[in-house]
Amino acid sequence: MKAISKSAILFLFLITLLASCNNFAYAPNIKATEAMKTSIVEARTSIFSTLKAVPTITQMPTETETPSPSPTWDAIRKTQESWIATNWAPVYATLDSRGVQCKDGYFLEVPEVIDRNSNPIWSIYTCSPQAGDYHAIWTPGSVDYSKRYTVIQRTDLSKNWVISHKDFPWSNRPNAYLRTYAWDRDGNFVYVVPATSPGPGGGSMAGLFRSSNELYRISLNTGKLETILPFAIEGYSYSLSPDGNYLAYSILEEENIIHIRNFKNNDEHLLKLKDDYVRSGAFVWTPDGKTLIFASAIKGWEEGTAGISIFALAMKDLYLQIILFNDERQLIPFAKWRDGKFYYWTEKNFLFVHSLKYMSVEYFSELALDIQSGNVSVISTPHPQLIGSATPKP
Hints:
The structure is a single chain. This protein is an alpha+beta fold. It folds into two domains: about 75-230; about 275-394, no CATH class. It has helices spanning about 1-20, 35-50, 75-85, 90-100, 115, and strands at about 105-110, 120-130, 150-155, 160-165, 175-185, 190-195, 215-220, 225-230, 235-240, 245-250, 255-260, 265-270, 275-285, 290-300, 310-315, 320-325, 330-335, 335-340, 340-345, 345, 350-355, 365-370, 375-380. Strands 17, 20, 21, 22 and 23 form a five-stranded antiparallel β-sheet that branches. The protein has a four-stranded antiparallel β-sheet with strand order 1-2-3-4. A hairpin with a 2-residue loop joins strand 20 (about 345) and strand 21. The protein is globular, with a radius of gyration of 25 Å. It starts with a helix and ends in a 14-residue tail after the last strand.
């Protein structure tokens, strides 16, 4: 009875803690004071000590069971028919209306994302060869994934382009496909990136600067596949301008160099930051495409001894301006999910930002940066009195 009582008390304590963390309040912009900074430290300490109080749960040993034979694809499909009819019927109805179909012996990769990757004029989807056995897809060499292909097809079925995956090393695994990054505004190209489902997990906060390891585009007029950014081990951070004329990117191995590629004349401008900067990216364009916003981390930021700066680059004359300098809150541009879409801007000149200071008050808050004044507005936070305003410019 004593053990049960203690468990119940701990359970009620955790419920109360979660409820208090989710009680977000709206608050105006408040300048930080030394007392507030002290409160932030205390809040962090409180969070960590609470997490350490959660006991480790061990499972009871179970009897060893004799493994059952691997089911065939036909057996799996038969057992899932009722579930698919209920849950996936709308998905397949949409794909049928688009004319999405793989040839015999192939199946659709990640059908639930196809409609999102497509647009009203074009459909894009990947087909993979079937394995004779369900579990065999995870056995290296059991399926020839070099035969995988991606289709870019007009919804009126008047045009159809097929992209072979035989030259894509990343494609030699289950659940790989080409994901749409952006559609050219003029309707001439679709930009695509390699993807897997489920995607990679884990990693450090430095990964939030990273977009992918490569970038391609496909001509909707000829079906030609073009490499825009070749494979790089650490990857890239990049963003296409709203009019599709410019690509801003950084090669993460280079640390402090910003590339601006002009697709109109194939020129490329390189902007080198000071050597103190070791990670740059999280590029965001203003809606009119006239200004590029990006973040750059200063050496020591991952250890907490330095911060992150946010820059604005005017495309008219490539004039670079610092909005925030060495900000200890470690803010970077960050998209928010609203009504089925990602948004970077809450309103004109106000950019959604996210703190990379894990387990801090700022980390659990929703913030917006005024790119003209450098002021940080609090949209929601569990502790409104602890969030400061702008970091002074140098």
